[in-house]
Amino acid sequence: MVTKSKGNQTQMAGYYSADSVAQLRKLSDLTRVPQSAYLREALDDLLAKYASVLRKAGPAK
Predict the structure, then answer these.
(1) Which phi and psi angles does 16 have, rounded to 5°?
(2) How does DSSP classify residue 11?
(3) What is the pLDDT of residue 59?
(4) In this predicted model, what pLDDT tens digit does every residue of 5-41 receive, in sequence order?
(5) 3-state DSSP percent of the chain in helix, strand and coil, to 5
(6) Under a CB-based contact definition with an 8 Å cutoff, are residues 42 and 33 in contact?
(7) b/e for 23-56, b at 16 or more Cβ within 10 A?
């Protein structure tokens, strides 16, 4: 769910397993890297993985 923009960033909400959230929180606490930075990195990695699919589909709407 997209809720609002801030500059060139857009806020989104999602559902994650309790275990995944706990592990992300622990990683963030141990490394002092914000959870949001890890989630942005994961999204960037996912989009890079499927870049060829996205190119075939054409421009984003």
Answers:
(1) -135, 155
(2) E
(3) 85
(4) 678 888 889 999 999 999 999 999 999 999 999 999 9
(5) 60, 15, 25
(6) no
(7) eeeeeeeeeeeeeeeeeeeeeeeeeeeeeeeeee
